[in-house]
Amino acid sequence: MQIGVCLPHYGQAMDPAGMRTFAERVESLGFDSIWVTDHVIVPKGLDIIYKERMLDPLATLSYLAGVTNTVRLGTSVLILPYRNPVIVAKELATTDVLSGGRVIFGAASGWMEGEFAALGADFANRGAVTDEYLQIITAIWSRAEPEVKTEHFDIRGVVASPEPAQRPRPPIWIGGQSPPAARRAIAFGDVWHPNLPSWEVVEGATRYLAELSAKAGRAQPPRLATRAAVNFDVPPPEGARPGLFGAPEQMAATARRFEAAGVSHLLLNWRDMPFVDVLAEMERFGTEVLPQAR
Fold first, then answer.
1. CA atoms within 13 A on the CB side of 212
2. 275-288 pLDDT, tens per residue?
3. Cβ atoms within 10 Å, residue 200
4. Across the strands, what pairs with 175?
5. Could you tell me which of 271, 273, 268 has the C-alpha nearest to residue 252?
6. Residue 110 CB-half CA count within 13 A
7. Nearest-angstrom CA–CA distance, 63 and 55
8. CB contact at 8 A, 6 and 37
């Protein structure tokens, strides 16, 4: 199982001067990947970590490409119906080229209705729009002269550049833990990426994906990846979603439970706290837990 780290590019931890330090330490400690997440404009009544001091994910991902050398770079996840898919394809292909082929494209349909309203995006049809945009991005990445006609786009007689460094395309992860998200992963994705689901979902996911894939005629089901919150030296709160809590030995045991459940990539994220504290916990995980978890 690979283990990645979510960059704290939002909330209390967002420290412009610290982003490079954090990314360089993630790479030097031997983590496999570093991730950015997405919200554009958040309704003020919502109490979520992504509301304040949040950097744009695609600009941040490009920055990470310039300050790292080997670690994979991913979106967990980009809310696709907010954005023009042709531009998204170009932006991510550009980062893939500049990083030497290290991009992982995680995408989802979104859930925050007020954000859709502020952006003038279609909330009611976001699932269908996501499917359409994934079809377009895949077509653009697959050939230099793409031809794809959908409900809202007719792309012919053009040249798309740059082509991604990874061929035939960067990996596609599909976020969301609903049945439509799982079916979308089977139709378009390499990985299904539900965010912080229950242990019941985690430990039943590989069987569920295999069943859905067989019905859809897909020979090899998508792999499974998820996030896990990290909180040293405290027990898991009652009713908490699966996460890494307690002493390093307990965290390593929990990581192995994720792996036994079929999780191929585990993404670590932290609660809202100052940058120096997130950095210290990430370094502690890298030195005290990561060697035991592998």
1. 20
2. 999 999 999 999 99
3. 9
4. 193
5. 268
6. 28
7. 11
8. yes
Q: Which two tokens stand for residue 148?
A: 């794809």
Backbone angles phi, psi at 179, to 5 degrees: -55, -40
Secondary structure letter of residue 235 according to DSSP? P
- DSSP annotation of 137: H
Give which of 174, 36, 40 is closest to 120, Cα–Cα.
40
Rounded to an integer, what distance in angstroms lies between the CA atom of residue 5 and that of residue 282?
8
For 213-231, how does the pLDDT look when each residue is reduced to its tens digit (9 = 90+)? 999 999 999 999 999 999 9
Q: Which ranges of the chain would DSSP assign to H, the alpha helix?
A: 18-28, 57-67, 85-98, 113-119, 126-142, 179-188, 199-216, 248-260, 275-284, 290-293
Contact 39, 112 (CB under 8 A): yes
- The CA-CA-CA angle for residues 4, 7, 9, to 5°, reads 165
> Does 206 score more than 90 pLDDT?
yes
Q: Letter for the amino acid at 181?
A: A
What is the token pair recorded at 209?
A: 């994906």
Host domain of residue 60 = 2-293
For the stretch 249-271, pLDDT in tens is 999 999 999 999 999 999 999 99
Lowest mean pLDDT among 23-27, 147-151, 192-196, 216-220: 192-196
Q: How far is CA 214 from CA 186, 206, 218, in A?
A: 10, 12, 6
Determine contact, residues 218/186, Cβ cutoff 8 Å: yes
Q: Would you give the end-to-end CA distance of the chain in angstroms? A: 7
pLDDT at 195: 87
Number of domains composing the chain: 1
Give tens-digit pLDDT for 174-196.
999 999 999 999 999 999 999 87
Tokens of 199: 């242990």
CATH number at residue 268: 3.20.20.30
